[in-house]
Amino acid sequence: MKKISIVVPAHNEEKNIAALVSELYKLFSNLAYDFECIFVDDGSKDNTLNEIKIQTEIHPEVHYVELARNFGKDQALQAGIQMATGDAVITMDADLQHPPQLITEMVKYWEQDYDVVYTYREKTNAHAKTYQKVSSKLFYKGLNMLSDIQLEDGIADFRLLDKKVVQQLRQLNEYEIFFRGMVKWVGFRQIGIPYNPAERLSGEASYSFFKLFKLAINSIMSFSVKPLYMVTGVGIVFSVGSLLYIPYIIISYLLHINVSGWASIIATIAFFGGLQLFVLGIIGMYLGKLFMQAKQRPSFIIRSANFIKTDYDLVKL
């Protein structure tokens, strides 16, 4: 019997854990697959870890991994995927906005020889706040325009990955990994299915506008050098444009025309000074990513778990 691993990153989700486990057991009671559920506690400040431990004592298929601090959702996904032992891995959120019933359809596509089955929102999330809706649209439009990958608007971390895709993802050694983009980048045979997110069972989304903005910048720079080409183009345009000013200077000098307008000169200097700082800032961000990658620090640190892995085999503690 094939085995499916469910990887669930959890950050302050204490009231959602038991409900999600219950839904998964109902689902897999009607599916001819073994399964395991791996919760990755990403530095929660509430009672999330204890709730997960309670479920591990009740259900032998439930496991937990506790990270040493809050490393981020993508790093938590990376930790869970490293631990998974199934023939396929399904990643999903803990708040039940990703409907577990959709797993049945995802598995059907997997059995039709698709290596990746991902989901995207069919409609705008009616339960999201206004700034979240706007920032989400801007995020995907900006990412698609400036990077070398194309993501559907509203693509989610609710996806199924075949074990051969998981093997490739395990070999990646990126410090700030963006899983949604990386899954697209690795290729294989992929298909997307739409879904309508349910209302969050409990709690609040932890992504602020600043975090979304930071995620957008890191995502673009992880998959493209287009921003560097763009600022180079801007520099060339302004350099060529400045050459057109030379005839005016020569004519003014020959005709002894006193040129006034210190305000316009100062404004021009300030504009070009700001432009140079902007260009240097983009270059600096790329250098910063290279600096962090060169340190070779781990993307996550595990504080505790109810199992350990050796050569991708589970060994019960």
From TrEMBL:
Pfam families: Glycos_transf_2. PANTHER family: GLYCOSYLTRANSFERASE CSBB-RELATED, UNDECAPRENYL-PHOSPHATE 4-DEOXY-4-FORMAMIDO-L-ARABINOSE TRANSFERASE-RELATED. The keyword Transmembrane helix applies. InterPro entries: Glyco_trans_2-like, Glycosyltransferase_2, Nucleotide-diphossugar_trans. It comes from Mucilaginibacter gynuensis. The chain crosses the membrane at residues 228-255, 261-287. Keywords: Membrane, Transmembrane, Transmembrane helix. This is Glycosyltransferase family 2 protein. Gene3D superfamilies: Spore Coat Polysaccharide Biosynthesis Protein SpsA, Chain A. Residues 5-169 form the Glycosyltransferase 2-like domain. The keyword Lipid metabolism does not apply.
